[in-house]
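Model the whole thing, not chain by chain.
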Amino acid sequence: MKKSHPLRRVVLAGAATVSGIVLLLSLKPASDPASASAQGAAPQQSVAGQESPQGGSAQQSSTGAKTVTGDVAQTQYGPVQVRITVSGGKITKSEVVQIPSGGRSTEVSNASVPKLNQEAVAAGSANIDAVSGASYTSAGYKKSLQSALDKAKASGGGSAGSTGSAGAGSSGSAGSSSQAPAAQAKTVTGSVAQTQYGAVQVRITVSGGKITKSEAVQAPKGGLSDQKTALAVPKLNQEAVAAGNANIDAVSGATYTSTGYKQSLQSALDKAGG
Amino acid sequence: MSTIAGGRAARRQTLRRIRPRRSPAVPLLLAVGAGAAGVIWLWWSNTPSIADDNSKILNAGRITGLLAGYLMALVVLQMARVPALERRVGSDRVARWHAMSGRYTISLVLAHLVLIMWGYALQAGKSFGDIVQQTIDSINQLPDMGKAAIGTGLLFLIGLLSMGPVRRRMGYDTWYHIHLLTYAAVFLTFWHQLSTGNEFAVEPTAKTVWYGLYGSVTALVIWYRILSPIRLNLKHRMRVEAVIEETPGIVSVLISGRKLHRMGAEAGQFFRWRFLAPGMRLSSHPYSLSAAPRPNMLRITVKAIGDHSSALRDLRPGTRVWAEGPYGALTAGKRSRGKVLLVAGGVGITPMRALFETLPGAAGDLTLLYRANTTQDLALWDELAAIAEERGARLMYAVNSPEGERPDISAETLSRKLPDIDRHDVFMCGPPGFAQQVYEALRGAGVPARRIHHESFEM
């Protein structure tokens, strides 16, 4: 029976909600510490793999393949970051480690990134054509690619052992066309595992009976899944290299993707074994 | 009761029966708050970082969406007629919660819609102005969004029709039946939460919790709004026994049935009544019991205000009655003191009459103050006088003077009539303006707010 003040209540509830949400948003860091460290850790893991007695070291120097990650290029839709593998002065592989995602951006990224990767390898420089309909992404890609090339040059041609080298693993994946590495690094792509949220497909590089590299060529996408994919896939890649088999832990919060990943990984291992 | 004489022994006996039941409102509100915190935590733990303004907008959209999804379930729960809410918290208070949280939820839904679509538009390289096109695209491209769009449209329609000025222009029954579409709207919007909600796509536990929340609310609605009334009516088989005109414009309806005392109704409570007579089948209205329930008879007393209450006069004996209830928290359980003042304004006498008859008390413990326009409008007066005499209770009335002047109900007059008024529990039922006036007078006379028990169906 206390006097009610409807207007005051509306204003209070609105103000409390808005300030609560603004506070929550501002408390979140601008970049993700977990995924950044996961991405940073992945190459180190493969280096560790190579340093093991069984053959890693042998593959490394013979081709002088080197992995360099370019600077982050900010675009209107989000950051773009490119990682290239340089071998014998040529780009043997180009891939993105960061790309705009979420909703429409995912579609754009999915359509443009494979083309840009291809172009980068073909051109051997950052002088590549923009993909139509993805001009911002293309521009960011070129920028990051250029910085990666600059770094590769600065660290001195083919000398091995630069930081973050993933060595033979990457050269193996590009090796289908030309440079056959000294050791039998072999790239095998697993079968597609369908999950509730989309297809998962894993490609591994096996060398000396060990997984030296694991990557997802397909992972759930579309609006809401790709945030999770971005978080889970680097971890899963890392785990696969560390474990050397498909018996890896699921990433919490990405159970379906993890399960699909393990399935595809197992099939890749089966193929590599046979 | 009449055998209990006044005096200390009798008072002690009365007091022994008084165990005020606390309203579970505070624990319930705390639980609701904890749930909201859990929902926020779900978002928090699934969002590693927010890189730019675009993500900020999207994440604000996610938070509002999650909260709206959570509150939506509670808004439905509030109207599930759960006895703990209806009889302990009080139907009136729960209805006000429902209106308040309903408005808030609709606002959250609107914010969620705008923020998410704005965020998607930005992501796709468009601006805020393309939000409509973006919404259409998202409906076409994302799973379950077509359903969600229809459901959201329904929600906005229902929200619009529930706004004061619009609602007052509609008949209650029309409004009520459109309002029932909320169930469809909630069902339609449920699925997009799971299929496109970031938190649910990646967190199977969250999905389970959400199914649990909506599943239990659905179960409660089915149980308490459908199955319980069916069982109640099959068991008690109520019919109109007689219709009695008490005063011009006020009628009592006597309702017979089997084992009516087993319905668990207490004095001060009400049922929602549906009379299966031509033209009345579709509407169900709340009317208080105006006498303590007897094994074979219930009575309601109603003032002809609207179409429904006016039509009661013409009910034929033998008409089947469908009742839902009992509801309401204005019962003896609220009492914390030996002495009780009952205040009735107009037809608000009905629950007070039932309480006046049944509240335990020694002679001199009970006082009833009855306010009406004229002495002719004092419905049930003869019964009240008989009860007062039998129980040794005080009965007072306040009517307008012959010149139409309103009686003076103030802290001073109340204190003069009842010098120990500050040691009373007060039960009150009457029109909002009257209730407000009396409330202020009582507070002025030193009655603490927690001992003023009042039910108001004003939103």
